[in-house]
Amino acid sequence: MESRPSAIIYWTLLAYKEWSFYIAASEKGLSYVGSQQKPFEEMSDWISRRFPESKLVQDDEKMVPFVQELIEYLQGVRQAFSIPFDYRGTPFQLAVWKALCEIPYGQTWSYSDIATHIQKPAAVRAVGTAIGANPILITVPCHRVIGKNGTLTGYRGGLEMKTRLLNLESGKSALEL
Questions:
Q1: Closest CA to 134 of 82, 88, 70
Q2: Exactly one of 96, 142, 161, 168 is catalytic; which is it?
Q3: Any idea which UniProt keywords this protein has (predicted)?
């Protein structure tokens, strides 16, 4: 019996100033951006569910392009990402994640805005579920989604991280973060 070769998922810990989160990528692109200050297991558990035949390999060198663009974003000098992504989801999730990438830097949309944008205006709750499953925080900017009444709503990275990212994009100083 022939065994299937396992894919390699490369990872590193991005640590920049007060930011610290794990990121992972396949040969195709960035696959995962973790939550602020969460343990390695958050990433490894997610990878084992989404890439079940893969092997996790720490490779700081291979991750440099991804780290570099994320740090440029955290410095406030990058507004869009050019790195490739490799995210896996249902067709509906992929449509929602694509829509998230269309939210302009520094702006916010509501869950119903996203549902309307993907031409599924009645699917607001499903949109929320798909956003919650977004594996690539920051680069697929689910932090730009707020409640219809303008309130901050759930975020896998936590509301503190969401607030800091929105403040970064609005140009507020570090003291306001």
A1: 88
A2: 142
A3: DNA damage, DNA repair, Methyltransferase, Transferase
Q: Give 23's contacts (C-beta < 8 A, 6+ positions apart).
A: 11, 12, 14, 30, 32, 33, 34, 43, 63, 66, 67, 70
29 contacts 132 by C-beta, under 8 angstroms: no
- In eight-state DSSP terms, residue 7 is P
Q: Are 111 and 131 in contact (CB under 8 A)?
A: yes
pLDDT of res. 171: 85
In sequence order, what are the beta bridge partners of 16?
19
Instruction: Report how far apart the first and last C-alpha atoms of the chain are (Å, whole number).
Output: 56
Tokens for 94? 């992929």
Name residue, tokens 């810990």: 13
Query: Is the pLDDT confidence value at 163 over 50?
Result: yes
Q: Are 135 and 87 in contact, with CB atoms under 8 Å apart?
A: yes
Q: Pick the residue with more confidence: 130 or 1? A: 130
Nearest partner of 159 among 147, 175, 148, judged by Cα:
147
**Is the full-model pTM beyond 0.85?**
yes
Q: Average pLDDT in the 29-44 region?
A: 95
pLDDT band for position 5 (cuts 50, 70, 90):
low
Spatial CB neighbours of 14, under 8 Å, sequence gap ≥ 6 = 20, 21, 22, 23, 67, 70, 71
pLDDT at residue 88 in the model: 86
